[in-house]
Amino acid sequence: MIQVSNLSKKFDSFCAVNNISFSVQPGEVLGFLGPNGAGKSTTMKILTGFLSPSAGEVSVMGHNVLKNPIAAQREIGYLPEGAPSYEDMSVISSLQFIGKARGFFGKELKQRIDSVVSKVELESVLLKRVETLSKGFRRRLGIAQALLHDPKVLILDEPTDGLDPNQKHQVRELIRNLSQDKTVIVSTHILEEVSAVCSRAMILAKGEIVFDGTPSELAAKSDFHNAVTIRLAKHSEVVIAALKKLPSVKSVSVGSDDQITVFSKDGQSILAEVNQVLQRGGCLLDELHVEVGRLDDVFRKVTLDDTMKATLNETKEQA
Amino acid sequence: MGSVKVILNRELASYFATPVAYIFIIIFLVLSGIFTFYLGHFFERAQADLSSFFNFIPWLYLVLVPAVAMRLWSEERRSGTIELLMTLPISTGKIVLAKFLAAWLFIGLALLLTFPIWLSVNYLGEPDNGVILAGYIGAWFMSGGFLAIGSCLSATTKNQIIAFILTLVVCFLMIVSGFPIVQDVLSGWAPLWLVDGFANLSFLTHFDAISRGVIDLRDFVYFLVLIAAWLYATVLVIDMKKAD
Predict the structure, then answer these.
(1) What residues of A are in contact with residue B79 (Cβ under 8 Å)?
(2) Which end of chain B is more exposed for a tag (fewer CB within 10 A), N or C?
C-alpha cells in the first residue's frame, strides 16, 4: 500500500514532480510511463526515501517515509535506475551483503539467496565479479537484491531495460507471478510492457499525471481503438468510398501496401457495418482485423498535447 | 550495531578485492622507511627512539590518507551504488560511521605493518617502548582526523580527484595552523586567545604532545571531537545532496 499526496520535488528552478497524488493498493501492479525527464525516477526515489520531497507526504505500508524512513525501507524492495551494484564484489557476496544488511544471517540468509537466485536464474554467474557481468545479468542481480527480503512493496525502475526479448519475457513473468498481496510499481519506456504486466497504467509528463487508468482504458484513448484494418485482394475505390460514407466511420486511410484502415468515430465498434459493406461489394479479403488501440499513439498524444490534458480533466470531473 | 559491522566488513573486503589496499600499504611502508632512515637520519642520530619516524608521519598521512578517503563517498556517487546503500533500512549515521571505521582500521593496519622499524630500534638500543606506543596511538588518532575530513569532502563530489585535492588542502591547513608562519601572521594583531586557538587547532600540536609520551586526555579528546564533528558534517552533506 502506497499513498502519495500533493508530492512536489524541485531541483533549483526545475520542477521535476509537480503536486501529484495517487495511491496504490496491494495486488496492484502500477506501470509508470512517461518520456525521459517526466519525473518517474524522481518519484520512485522519493517513495524509497532516497530523496526528500520539496512538499507533500508519502506513506508506504502505513509508515511515513519522511518521518520514519527506516520502517518504510524495511517494507520496500527497490531496483534503482540502471541497477547499480558494487563492481568489485562477486554476485554471491553482493547478495550476502544485502541480505545481512537487511538482518538475515546463517541458514535463513542462505535459503533466501537460493530462492531468489533460482527465481531470476543467476546460478551460472554466482562466483563472477559484478564488473564482468553482462547488462542482463546485472539487471537480474538488481532484481534479486530487491526481492531478497520478500518485500510487501516493490519499486522497480526500468526492470527490463537492456534485456534481450527472452529475458524481458522472463522478468515480466516474474513480476506477474509475484504473490497477490504485493504492491508493485514498475517504470518503463516500453508500452507493450504495460499491457503485459500492469493492472494499472499512469502516464507522467512534465512532473504531472496526465493519465491514470487500466491499460485497456489507455488503449481506448487511441485513434486506432476499434479501427478495422483490411487488405483487399483487389483494390476497389468503390468500396473505399462506401466505407467513408458509413455514419460511424470517422475516416479511412489507405496505406502504401494497399492496407486500408477504417477509423471509428468515438471508438465505437464498427466491425459489423464494415463487414456489410465488404459483403455487398463482394470483396475478397486477404486480411481483416480489429485494432485494440495503439499505445504509442496514445502515449504521444497524452505527453505532447496539452489540450488532451484538458479533456482528461473534464472526464475526471464528470466521473 | 549489527548493520555497522555488515557495512564495515563489506568496505574492508572491497579494499582488498582491488589492488588499492596492497599499493597503499606498500607505498606507505616504503615511504615511511625512506623518511625514517634517510631524511630522518635514524642511524646518525644514534638515539634509541622513533622520533625520526613520528616526525614525518603527519606529512606522509597528508598525502596518503586523502587518497584513501577520496573514494569513500565519491565512488558510491559515481557508480550509483549510493542509492542502493541509502535505501537499505540503515540510518545515514550508521553508514557514515561504518565506512569511516573500515577506512580507519585499514590505515591502522598499514601503521601496524611498520613494526620492523620498532624491531630495529629495540635491536639497536633500549628505547622507551611506552613512548613509542603512545606515538603509534597518536598517529592512528591523527589519521582518523585526516580521514574524517576526507569523508566529509568526498561526500560533496562524485569526482575523486576533486575530493583528494580538497582534503589535502584542508588537512594541510589543519597541520600548519600551529606553525610559526601562521602564528606570526596572527600574533601581530589578533588577540592572544585567537592565536592560541589556532595553535590548538593544529594536528601537530596535539600529535607532538602524544608522541613525546605526554599522555594528556585532552589531546585524545581533541581528535575524537574533531572526528565526530567531521563525520556529523558528512551525514549532513549526504542527506542534503544525495541526488546529484
Answers:
(1) 84, 86-87
(2) C
Find which of A63, A97, A141 to mutate to test the B interface (most B CBs within 10 Å of its CB).
A97
Q: Chain B: residue nearest A41 by CA?
A: B243
Confidence at A105, pLDDT banded by 50, 70, 90: very high
Residue A291's Cβ-side half-sphere holds a number of Cα atoms within 13 Å equal to 21
HEC per residue, A285-315:
EEEEEECCCCHHHHHHHHHHCHHHHHHHHHH
Q: What is the mean pLDDT of residues B171-181?
A: 83
CB atoms inside a 10 Å sphere around CB A51? 21
- Kindly indicate the confidence band of residue B2, based on its pLDDT and cuts at 50, 70 and 90: confident
Cα–Cα distance measured from residue B13 to residue A139, given in angstroms and rounded to the nearest whole number: 23
**What are the distances in angstroms from CA A311 to CA A30, A33, A38, A264, A317?**
23, 19, 20, 19, 10
Which residues lie below 8 Å from residue A298, measured CB to CB, with a gap of 6+? A211, A218, A219, A221, A222
CB-nearest to B89 from A70, A84, A89 is A70
Q: How confident is the model at residue A315 (pLDDT cuts 50, 70, 90)?
A: low
Q: Which triple of cell numbers denotes residue A267?
A: 471508438
Is the pLDDT assigned to residue A64 strictly greater than 90?
yes
CB B1 within 8 A of CB B83: no
Residue A232 parent element (H or E): strand A228-232
Rounded-to-integer distance, Cα A179 and Cα A231, Å:
44
Query: Angle CA(A203)–CA(A204)–CA(A205) in degrees, nearest 5?
Result: 125
Burial class (CB in 10 A: 0-12, 13-18, 19+), B10: buried
Phi first, then psi, for residue A18 (nearest 5°) are -120, 95
Contacts of A123 (CB under 8 A, 6+ apart): A117
pLDDT tens track for A134-169: 888 999 999 999 999 999 999 999 998 878 888 888
Single-letter code of the amino acid located at A172: R
Q: What's the CATH superfamily of A2-214?
A: P-loop containing nucleotide triphosphate hydrolases (3.40.50.300)
CATH class of segment(s) A228-290: alpha beta
**Chain B within 8 Å of A45 (Cβ-Cβ)?**
yes
Show me where the domains of chain B are located. Answer: 2-169+205-240
Cβ–Cβ of A82/B80 closer than 8 Å?
yes
Q: Is A29 helix (H, G, I), strand (E, B) or coil?
A: strand
User: Does residue A17 register a pLDDT over 60?
Assistant: yes
Task: Give the ipTM.
Answer: 0.88
Domain boundaries, chain A: 2-214, 228-290
Q: What confidence score (pLDDT) does residue B8 get?
A: 96
Name the more confident of B4 and B178. B4
Residues of B in contact with A82 (CB under 8 A): 80
